[in-house]
Amino acid sequence: MPSMVAGCINEHPMSGLLIRTVRNRAIEWQVPWAVIYVETPEHYELSGEQKEDIIRTLSRAEQMGAQVYHTMSPSVVKGIREFAQKNAVSDIFVGTSAKDMIPLLNCFSVFQGLKRYSNLFATHSVNLEWRSGVGGWRLLLKKIKSDCARIKWRNYGYSALTLLLAALLGEGAYRTAFTDTGHHMLYNASLLFMLASIMNALRYGLIPGLFSGFFSAIMINFLYLQPRFELHIRTSQDLINLGLLVVATIIASRIGANSYRSIGLSRRREERIQTLYHLTKTLAANRDLKELQSALVRELDNILETETRIFLAEVFTDAGELPQIQGLIGFNEEDVAALKYCWANRESSGIGTFRNNSSSYHFEPMIASSGIIGVLAVKMQPNTRDDLSYIRFASVLADQAVLAIERAKMIAEMEENRVQQEREKLRSSLLSSVSHDLKTPLASIIGSLSALRHMEKTLSPGARATLLETALDEAERLNSFITNILNMTRLESGAVKLRKIWIEPDMLITDLLKRIQPRIANHEITHLTLPGHFQVELDTPLFELLFSNLLDNAAKYSPSGSGIIVSSGIENRENGPYWKFMVADEGPGIEEKDRARIFNKFTRLEKKDSQVAGTGLGLAICKAVAQAHGGDISVSTDERGSGALFTVAIGPGRYMENFMEKMPTTKTAAEGR
Amino acid sequence: MTNENILVVDDNPAIRTFLNVVLKANGYQVVEAATAAEGLKSFRSKHPDLVILDLGLPDQDGLELLSELRAQKNPAQVIILTVRSEPEYRESAIEKGAAAYITKPFRTNELLKTTEQLLKAG
């Protein structure tokens, strides 16, 4: 039973026939099918056009549903055998051409080579050239013609020049050093020609190397074998010598060419592995999608040594159209068409494919598990357009890019979810906080009022007075809460227009302390004033908001009977002296980690904090007021102990005339105490 | 009037004052507690006939205190008096043994009627 069929293609222009045959057989047998190309050192002898043909054939096979493999191996037969064993291939199809028909010579063909492994798989041949009748002959002629057209005659010219040089050198040595016509000269000349042939093999490839080998033999015969200047071989010894020279040259050329290529190959492989590793590392560091995309393009530009672009899903409309976007600058119509084709059909397009291959870009679809997420465009340079492994490599890189993008998307999604959840949590906590803060005072108010109404007779005058007072107090608390919310909203939306006046802050503080006194009667307040006359520009009602919130906060979070110190100071900043207003309490203080957070809206630090009457708005309002005055607020630990020390800086202020010289500038009142 | 003893556990001083005045005017004796710990202590020493309990207490959730109070040797009836109006709190409180669940703000009559009924039944 066949398990899998595979077709082995080469640069032959009729390779398309081979893959169609393989596909038909696979459909008939209902088995998967594969197309393989084995890259041997001879691959480098191929012309650019032939290499492009191979890429296109592989690309077409992929579009037709084949699994496409591209392996590197010293010989085609070895490569196919290894591939077949690894993938459990039962049937191999290879193309045969006219030269495989020639008896004896065909024993070196791939087909004959593969037949030796009949225990592993069955080998079938597909005749790519031979057609009976006139058409067949025409095809054959055409192929020979095109083969000849591809030969790089220049390389042969250079090879001939090298040999000529060797001949001249040899002749020079012959005339100066030796007068005798002995065999020594033959050996020396042989080595000289062999060296030239190997050099040609290394430089211009295998075929010019072999050509040099044969040509060397003829030259040696002509120049050094007796009789000189004749192609006549007199002794069997000479014949053997010449034969050995040719064989040695062939072997050396082959080895030389192979090792030269394989060094290049392995170096390239090594480089690419390094590159992939580096790329993966770089991409993993980028978490933001926008950042990632630009990093990707930058990396790919470097790796592929060309210009690359990434078109992600959002640039395409639902109909697969591309509205004019910046990424299209420099694209011609063919490029855009290829890009659209790639997006719509999830297939490679552009150079190296059958679709829009007159584009100067190769387009690789970026396919994730969820479907196509974008297109990678690689500008093909003249030296890469026929490089099969380059295109394969670009496709691997596209896969890497997909992984990185998917990862970044997932992280972004998770982040979005988290933010959404946080927002939801904040909203519900805000709602419950607000409703708690509104309902608590209302409970006392409604309770007291309803008692006054229905229990008129049972309540003593004292009890009635207490209830009325409770209701009033709580109503006021409710009012201040609502005012705070409104103020916060207005400050946040920027609706508050500051009406600032120049004022001596300590005078204002003294005034405000008197007003707030009843609310903080349980604490001992110390006010340390600034020893001098300093003015600052304040919106007094707004500052009162800040002041009362800060004082309420200090009173709320420190034990009853403890002290609160309110002090002033001056801090010199770049744009002038700032007034520093400080409130220190003897409460538990604020832990380092919470210090930035406490100025956020509706932040209450501990669980029990949510029970202390408050809105979670107080400090947020303080911050907003300070910022509206061009100042700031911070919290630290009071140097006397563990309590919290809030410092508000507002400014720049000014020293009043006549008092300038007496002013302490850097030392603050708080530090002085 | 038998001078039944009522323990009020609420962190809000205004509510405590209000309840104190109203309950006393109706002939009950009132013990106040501002925290759960204080509440538990007073419960053990004063053996109240009824507890009016807030859920949002600074040191412990009122529902936990409710469970503890109900687990005492001579459990008293408990009225929950809270701003939490979500049904899951009400269900949880009833399940844990609360006799009544009143949400703030409330009418004094409503509270007094419930108090009277519970004390009579107990």
User: What about the largest sheet of chain B?
Assistant: 5 strands, parallel
Count of domain modules of chain B: 1
Poorly predicted tracts of residues of chain A: 607-612, 660-673
> How many beta-strand segments of chain B?
5
Task: Tell me the distance between the termini of chain A.
Answer: 100 Å
The helicity of chain A comes to 40-55%
What proportion of the residues of chain A form beta strands (DSSP E)? 15-25%
Largest interface: A-B, 31 and 24 residues
Oligomeric state of the chains?
heterodimer
**Structural class by sheet pairing and helices of chain A:** alpha/beta
Q: Specify the CATH architecture of chain B.
A: 3-Layer(aba) Sandwich
CATH topology of chain B: Rossmann fold
Sheet with most strands: strand arrangement of chain B: 2-1-3-4-5
**Arithmetic mean of pLDDT of chain A:** 80
Q: Which of globular, elongated, flat, extended, rod-shaped describes the shape of chain A? A: elongated
Superfamily (CATH H level) name of chain B:
Response regulator
What does this structure look like?
The complex is a heterodimer of chains A (673) and B (122). Chain A has 673 residues and is an alpha/beta fold. Chain A has 17 helices and 17 strands. In chain A, the strands form four sheets. Chain A has a five-stranded parallel sheet, with helices on both faces. Chain A has a five-stranded mixed sheet with strand order 11-13-14-16-15. The model of chain A is unreliable at 607-612 and 660-673 (pLDDT under 50). Chain B is an alpha/beta fold. Chain B has one domain: Rossmann fold (3-Layer(aba) Sandwich), CATH 3.40.50.2300. Helices cover 46% and strands 20% of the residues of chain B. Chain B contains five helices and five strands; from the N terminus they run βαβαβαβαβα. In chain B, β1, α1 (13-25) and β2 (29-33) form a beta-alpha-beta unit. The two termini of chain B are 15 Å apart. In chain B, 43% of the residues are buried. The mean pLDDT of chain B is 90. At the A-B interface, α12 and α13 of A face α1 and α5 of B.
